[in-house]
């Protein structure tokens, strides 16, 4: 089997893009536990006031305006160099795709905040359209087709992960030759368990994270330097060696 490079990315890869970490020590939900209700499905479906605050949060957080940073671009550059790769991400910001990784190679475990879905008929629209409606004064915009409750296409607390996406991610973890776990504390399952799956199947594990993780002992390499400099350095070595292998064939 050809070499397959897998990335498992979490909030830490996007903080340099100005997207807040929700669960970290300074995280939005850590500082304001009440804010967790805004992304908990039962509260969201039952209470229009929660929905209004939730939409306001989407309106005010910079996910749509955020730009990829050097770490996102380093991963996209590895793809461009012809290395077989997949990205498994816990992030909902779409920045891997914005950096240039084809959408079919990005598995979004927690969904996407850039897409809005109707909880009744399943119709999909964009966050941009929802934001436009918010700006026009609709504080809890309803589905234009059936009047149902709209939500971002993200996995809220109390919802299951998309089983097909999770299955694909597990397949990638089983098949990869190296897995980079980047900017994730590896404490939220089942995403964190993918590192264990990769290790069991013989993949080299590289963890790039500021804080210790439960998988540091499993890893072949643990990198503590900032992601924005560490990842470009690590991946340029990788594409150089891939290039020289190609040249020798
Ligand atoms: Zn609908």
Give a verbal description of the structure.
With 249 residues, the protein is an alpha/beta fold. It folds into two domains: 1-19 and 68-110 and 161-249, TPP-binding domain (Rossmann fold), CATH 3.40.50; 25-60 and 112-154, SIR2/SIRT2 'Small Domain' (2-Layer Sandwich), CATH 3.30.1600. 37% of the residues lie in helices and 17% in strands. The chain contains nine helices and nine strands. It has helices at 28-31, 41-46, 48-60, 70-80, 95-99, 127-135, 163-175, 193-200, 227-248; strands at residues 5-9, 85-89, 106-108, 111-118, 124-126, 150-154, 178-182, 204-208, 221-223. The strands form two sheets. The chain has a six-stranded parallel beta sheet with strand order 3-2-1-7-8-9, with helices on both faces. Helix 5 links the parallel strand 2 and strand 3. Helix 4 runs parallel beside helix 9 (227-248). The protein is elongated, with a radius of gyration of 19 Å. It starts with a strand and ends with a helix. Residues 118, 120-121, 123, 143, 145-146, 148 line the site of zinc ion.
């Amino acid at each position: 089997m050809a070499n397959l490079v897998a990335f498992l990315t979490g909030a830490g890869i996007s903080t340099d893009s100005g997207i807040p970490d929700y669960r970290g020590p300074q995280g939005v939900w850590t500082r304001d536990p009440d804010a967790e209700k805004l992304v908990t499905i039962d509260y969201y479906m039952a209470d229009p006031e929660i929905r209004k605050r939730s939409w306001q949060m989407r309106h005010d957080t910079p996910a749509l305006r955020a730009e990829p940073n050097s770490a996102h671009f380093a991963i996209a550059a590895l793809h461009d160099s012809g290395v077989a790769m997949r990205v498994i991400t816990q992030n909902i910001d779409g920045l891997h795709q914005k950096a240039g990784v084809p959408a079919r190679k990005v598995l979004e475990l927690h969904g996407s905040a850039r897409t809005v879905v109707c909880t009744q008929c399943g119709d999909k629209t964009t966050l941009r359209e929802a934001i436009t409606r918010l700006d026009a004064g609709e504080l809890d915009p309803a589905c234009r087709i059936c009047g149902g409750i709209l939500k971002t296409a993200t996995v809220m607390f109390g919802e299951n992960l998309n089983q097909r996406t999770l299955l694909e991610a597990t397949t990638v973890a089983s098949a990869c030759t190296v897995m980079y776990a980047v900017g994730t504390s590896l404490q939220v399952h089942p995403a964190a368990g993918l590192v264990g799956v990769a290790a069991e199947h013989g993949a080299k594990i590289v963890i790039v994270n500021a804080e210790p993780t439960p998988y540091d002992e499993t890893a072949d390499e643990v990198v503590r330097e900032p992601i924005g400099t560490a990842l470009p350095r690590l991946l340029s070595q990788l594409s150089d060696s891939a290039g020289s292998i190609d040249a020798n064939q």
